């Protein structure tokens, strides 16, 4: 027995050494990303093949004789001139000014992956009709909207027009490339070797897996593979020249077997009249996307990248394949629905006569029209693209939201301040931090626990020595009306005594290797299995784990953080999973990679909803994301660094996410890596207070940086920043309601609100919150002033601190101190605020409201306030909410229902009204239904033209008017 114990101990030590070795390599990149760990386009064989195709006449032509026009779609076959492979194009006109294009093989060797679960429903179609044709083209009219589609047969291309204006062209540069599936041509000697190897694999499979009945299982094949290959037409079995990396690929020491061969797809889109494009997050780069000729394309491939570089098109943690195009006269969107690794090339051109051919009749002016060309390239799947035709940016937002859903309405507490680090040591540490906020009069809603809280990094558990009584700890926080967030990552420690692992293993819910065994990689716990979240049964199992019975020690005020869900695999290629790993339905990981984190986020949010019987709204933070992730909660910009460039880049990163539906975005305040100096930390708090998700977070090896640990001067500034955040919570909550209802971004670029102001098109160091507040954070060390652009030829802007009024458009140099950042309220808006800052948002939700009314040059203003209980779905299921509209015109402020369907009993009342830009009245009168007029006391400052009305004493839920006489 002693010998056995000694051997076990040696194995344990060896295992720990191996884990530490992997972590050492992984953490070695912490303070400078090692680019060699991540592929360039040249190192990604499919990107290299796609990009090697140069613009020219397309080798594809449409067979007009095959065209079929049904009630919901048009289909037509496309033939490659050389290979004779036939593709099937499906074109749909959609309601709300959208068009959908799908291209797949007519007779594939095996089905290609079509992304499920991202669309909230099948989008309703708008019938197409033929309005003209000749021998080489056909003109189609969309029943809804003034749009036409011209299909040109040889070479194949599509042109979308509004009237006589060309909106965009598809395949105008001839870059449609669809790598059809084929059988591999190999020399006879290799065939013998492959056959013997295959036979041996089958023998091993039979003896290693009892009960296996499908001979295709375990070798990476689809269920259709074995029987299907023999029955396909010879034209599709013809192998063209075999490029390096087409059938197997090496990156460093990692081999990608590619059992199905090359399957990439690519297509180009030309946007005449467009010079500015945005979107396709996540990248640490400028808001306006840059031309990529001569450099790297933008990459979409969810990866765990420590301390990423700024101004770089490298892939990061999430991918949303949506691009927005903007000009002073038009906004368009392209939604490329593909979950595989994707690269996007962007080039700026001039639309010349040779490019447009017969379309010249529809172009206005000369051949000097500016143009942006966008080329999408994905490793597998089909071409499935939605063209969002605007015409305004807000139309594009709503069109995209109709497809993938809107931002989930967050619980109110999640819009407050979050205090986190890797890691708070134990229960005493957590409660000491909690008390620290009270002792220093600082508001806080949530304290966070990272991986060290779990027992040996076994998620859904608590370290018994550090967190022996988690429920008591949670109850203490609940007594302060605060919450706790604990991390639950999607890598599960391989441990025979760990119930979570045993159930996943026994139920076959892990991702598999090519040979059908459970896939194991290395992550924080050491050897880990990866749940297959593409499997609905896995997601249901995961959701059930958040019940209070299954997640021991949890409580209603415990919420969840999903990290490492790209997925992160320390010993995998590019720190992620092997592409030939197998998922539910026989799909390879290469097909689903970018949607893995989406499914983790989905299942976790469902779990939090289910644990309350469907009553409570969840809060889940996810690092990885995809199109549609906005339905499940918040995201953040990942492992940033305590450097000024990382502070600055968080603005365009969150703006880009908001443009594609993910409004609930933030960055780690203070930077995750390294130790910020007090100036940087203060500036980060000031910026974070005006970004949607507001969390301070730090690496294990950084110094503690709770606000009260700073010198008193800096504490006061951070306290002021937190105060601004909590004061504006009614406005934040209302903005999120509109994001939830309409799909509009909460934090938005200036050009969205001022689409014809060319100056705004490239601005990404300032932003708007809704349509009312303009924020210019200070993001340079030692700054004594900043240049602020105030847009709008008919606008006035009021400094929210001094009430000084400025007219737009103009650029101002504004002096700043360490305690100030420029924030302005637009004339014509009304912003609701809470003026009593308490320990948490839950302590403030019944406090009275102060209305800040900023008058336009015409003496008008408007705003709204959304109220409900702040945490349940009752606003949906029972219509228990208030949406009030406040309007000022003709010297009268009026409160009325903005949505009469909602009703909610609330003690909230109007405590004060501050009106900017008004002359002193002789009297102020309050009118309410069923009561006589009453006079209100007021004060007027002639220097700032600000009128303050004190204690009108009216309910926010009632109709009333305040008249200035």
TrEMBL record:
GO function term, MF aspect, one = Glc2Man9GlcNAc2 oligosaccharide glucosidase activity
Q: Which residues form the Glycosyl hydrolase family 31 C-terminal domain?
A: 743-831
| Catalysed reactions, semicolon-separated | N(4)-(alpha-D-Glc-(1->3)-alpha-D-Man-(1->2)-alpha-D-Man-(1->2)-alpha-D-Man-(1->3)-[alpha-D-Man-(1->2)-alpha-D-Man-(1->3)-[alpha-D-Man-(1->2)-alpha-D-Man-(1->6)]-alpha-D-Man-(1->6)]-beta-D-Man-(1->4)-beta-D-GlcNAc-(1->4)-beta-D-GlcNAc)-L-asparaginyl-[protein] + H2O = N(4)-(alpha-D-Man-(1->2)-alpha-D-Man-(1->2)-alpha-D-Man-(1->3)-[alpha-D-Man-(1->2)-alpha-D-Man-(1->3)-[alpha-D-Man-(1->2)-alpha-D-Man-(1->6)]-alpha-D-Man-(1->6)]-beta-D-Man-(1->4)-beta-D-GlcNAc-(1->4)-beta-D-GlcNAc)-L-asparaginyl-[protein] (N-glucan mannose isomer 9A1,2,3B1,2,3) + beta-D-glucose; N(4)-(alpha-D-Glc-(1->3)-alpha-D-Glc-(1->3)-alpha-D-Man-(1->2)-alpha-D-Man-(1->2)-alpha-D-Man-(1->3)-[alpha-D-Man-(1->2)-alpha-D-Man-(1->3)-[alpha-D-Man-(1->2)-alpha-D-Man-(1->6)]-alpha-D-Man-(1->6)]-beta-D-Man-(1->4)-beta-D-GlcNAc-(1->4)-beta-D-GlcNAc)-L-asparaginyl-[protein] + H2O = N(4)-(alpha-D-Glc-(1->3)-alpha-D-Man-(1->2)-alpha-D-Man-(1->2)-alpha-D-Man-(1->3)-[alpha-D-Man-(1->2)-alpha-D-Man-(1->3)-[alpha-D-Man-(1->2)-alpha-D-Man-(1->6)]-alpha-D-Man-(1->6)]-beta-D-Man-(1->4)-beta-D-GlcNAc-(1->4)-beta-D-GlcNAc)-L-asparaginyl-[protein] + beta-D-glucose
| Pfam families the record matches | Gal_mutarotas_2, Glyco_hydro_31_2nd, Glyco_hydro_31_3rd
Please report the stretch or stretches of sequence annotated as the Glycoside hydrolase family 31 N-terminal domain.
Answer: 89-345
Name the EC number(s). Answer: 3.2.1.207
Location within or outside the cell: Endoplasmic reticulum; Golgi apparatus
Cite the residue spans of the region called Disordered. 210-246
Metabolic or biological pathway, per its Swiss-Prot or TrEMBL entry:
Glycan metabolism; N-glycan metabolism
> Which keywords describe this protein according to UniProt?
Endoplasmic reticulum, Glycoprotein, Glycosidase, Golgi apparatus, Hydrolase, Signal
One GO BP annotation here? carbohydrate metabolic process
Q: Which residues form the Glycoside hydrolase family 31 TIM barrel domain?
A: 408-735
- Cellular component annotations (GO), alphabetically ordered: glucosidase II complex; Golgi apparatus
Location (main, coarse):
endoplasmic reticulum
Q: Where is this chain compositionally biased, Basic and acidic residues type?
A: 227-246
Q: Which SUPFAM superfamilies match?
A: (Trans)glycosidases (SSF51445), Galactose mutarotase-like (SSF74650), Glycosyl hydrolase domain (SSF51011)
Could you tell me which Gene3D superfamilies the record lists for this protein? Glycosidases, glycosyl hydrolase (family 31), Golgi alpha-mannosidase II
- Where does the source fall among the domains of life? Eukaryota
Member of which family?
Answer: Belongs to the glycosyl hydrolase 31 family.
Q: What is this protein called?
A: Neutral alpha-glucosidase AB
Q: Which organism is it from?
A: Heterocephalus glaber (Naked mole rat)
UniProt lineage: Eukaryota, Metazoa, Chordata, Craniata, Vertebrata
């Amino acid at each position: 027995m002693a010998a056995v114990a000694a051997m076990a101990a040696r194995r344990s030590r060896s295992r720990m050494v191996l884990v530490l070795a992997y972590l050492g390599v992984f953490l070695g990149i912490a303070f400078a990303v090692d680019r060699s760990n991540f592929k360039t386009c040249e190192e990604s064989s499919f990107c290299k093949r796609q990009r090697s195709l140069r613009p020219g006449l397309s080798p594809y032509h449409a067979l007009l004789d095959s065209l079929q026009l049904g009630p919901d779609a048009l289909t037509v076959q496309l033939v490659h001139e050389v290979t004779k492979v036939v593709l099937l194009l499906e074109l749909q006109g959609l309601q709300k000014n959208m068009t959908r294009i799908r291209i797949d093989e007519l007779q594939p060797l095996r089905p290609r992956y079509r992304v499920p679960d991202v669309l909230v429903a099948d989008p309703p179609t708008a019938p197409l009709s033929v309005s003209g044709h000749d021998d080489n083209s056909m003109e189609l009219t969309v029943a809804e909207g003034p749009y036409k589609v011209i299909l040109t047969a040889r070479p194949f291309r599509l042109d979308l027009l509004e009237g006589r204006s060309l909106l965009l062209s598809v395949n105008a540069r001839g870059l449609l490339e669809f790598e059809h599936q084929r059988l591999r041509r190999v020399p006879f000697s290799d065939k013998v070797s492959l056959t013997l190897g295959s036979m041996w694999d089958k023998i091993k499979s039979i003896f290693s897996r009892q009960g296996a009945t499908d001979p295709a299982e375990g070798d990476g094949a689809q269920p259709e593979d074995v029987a299907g290959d023999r029955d396909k037409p010879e034209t599709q079995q013809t192998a063209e020249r075999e490029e390096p990396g087409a059938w197997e690929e090496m990156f460093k020491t990692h081999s990608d077997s590619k059992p199905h061969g090359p399957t990439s797809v690519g297509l180009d889109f030309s946007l005449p009249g467009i010079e500015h494009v945005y979107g396709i997050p996540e990248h640490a780069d400028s808001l306006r996307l840059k031309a990529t000729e001569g450099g790297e394309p933008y990459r979409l491939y969810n990866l765990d990248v420590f301390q990423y570089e700024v101004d770089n098109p490298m892939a990061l943690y999430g991918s949303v394949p949506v691009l927005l195009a903007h000009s002073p006269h038009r906004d368009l969107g392209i939604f490329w629905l593909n979950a595989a690794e994707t690269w996007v090339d962007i080039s700026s051109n001039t639309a010349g006569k040779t490019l447009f051919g017969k379309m010249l009749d529809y172009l206005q002016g000369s051949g000097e029209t500016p143009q942006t060309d966008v080329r999408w390239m994905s490793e597998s799947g089909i071409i499935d693209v939605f063209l969002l035709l605007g015409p305004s940016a807000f139309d594009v937002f709503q069109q995209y939201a109709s497809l993938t859903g809107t931002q989930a309405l967050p619980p109110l507490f999640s819009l407050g301040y979050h205090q986190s680090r890797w890691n708070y040591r134990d229960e005493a540490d957590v409660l000491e931090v909690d008390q620290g906020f009270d002792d220093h009069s600082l508001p806080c809603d949530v304290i966070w626990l990272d991986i060290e809280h779990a027992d040996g990094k076994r998620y859904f558990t608590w370290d018994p020595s550090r967190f022996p009584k988690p429920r008591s700890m949670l109850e203490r926080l609940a007594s302060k009306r605060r919450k706790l967030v604990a991390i639950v990552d999607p890598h599960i420690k391989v441990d025979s005594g760990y119930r979570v692992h045993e159930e996943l293993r026994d139920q076959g819910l892990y991702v598999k290797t090519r040979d059908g065994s459970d896939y194991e990689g290395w992550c924080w716990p050491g050897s880990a299995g990866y749940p297959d979240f593409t499997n609905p049964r896995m997601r249901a199992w995961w959701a059930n784990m958040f019940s209070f019975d299954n997640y021991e020690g949890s409580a209603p005020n415990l919420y969840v953080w999903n990290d490492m869900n790209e997925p992160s695999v320390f010993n995998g290629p590019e720190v992620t999973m092997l592409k030939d790993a197998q998922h539910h339905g026989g799909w390879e990981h290469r097909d689903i990679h970018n949607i893995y984190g989406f499914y983790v986020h989905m299942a976790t949010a469902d779990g939090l909803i289910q644990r309350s019987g469907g009553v409570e709204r969840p809060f889940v933070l996810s690092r990885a994301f995809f199109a549609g992730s906005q339905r499940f909660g918040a995201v953040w910009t990942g492992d940033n660094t305590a450097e000024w460039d990382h502070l600055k880049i968080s603005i365009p990163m969150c703006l880009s996410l908001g443009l594609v539906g993910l409004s609930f975005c933030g960055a780690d305040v203070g930077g995750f890596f390294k130790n910020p100096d007090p100036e940087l930390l203060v500036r980060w708090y000031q910026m974070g207070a005006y970004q949607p998700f507001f969390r301070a977070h730090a690496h294990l090896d950084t110094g503690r940086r709770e606000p009260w640990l700073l010198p008193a001067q800096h504490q006061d500034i951070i306290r002021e920043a937190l105060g601004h955040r909590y004061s504006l919570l009614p406005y934040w909550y209302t903005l999120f309601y509109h994001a939830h209802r309409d799909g509009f971004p909460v934090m938005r670029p200036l050009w969205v609100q001022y689409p014809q102001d060319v100056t705004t098109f490239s601005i990404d160091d300032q932003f708007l919150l809704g349509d009312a507040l303009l924020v210019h954070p200070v993001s340079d060390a030692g700054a004594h002033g900043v240049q602020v652009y105030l847009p709008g030829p008919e606008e006035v802007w009021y400094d929210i601190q001094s009430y000084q009024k400025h007219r737009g458009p103009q650029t101002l140099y504004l002096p700043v101190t360490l305690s100030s950042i420029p924030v302005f309220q637009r004339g014509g808006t009304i912003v609701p605020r809470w003026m009593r800052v308490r320990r948490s948002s839950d302590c403030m939700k019944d406090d009275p409201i102060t209305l800040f009314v900023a008058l336009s040059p015409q003496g008008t203003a408007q705003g709204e306030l959304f109220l409900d209980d702040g945490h349940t779905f009752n606003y949906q299921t029972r219509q228990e909410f208030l949406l009030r509209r406040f309007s000022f015109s003709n010297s009268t402020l009026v409160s009325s229902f903005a949505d009469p369907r909602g009703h909610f009993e609330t003690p909230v009342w109007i405590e004060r009204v501050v009106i900017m830009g008004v002359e002193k009245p002789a009297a102020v009168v309050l009118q309410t239904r069923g009561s006589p007029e009453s006079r209100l006391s007021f004060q007027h400052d002639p220097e700032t033209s600000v009128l303050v009305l004190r204690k009108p004493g009216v309910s926010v839920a009632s109709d009333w008017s305040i008249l200035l006489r």
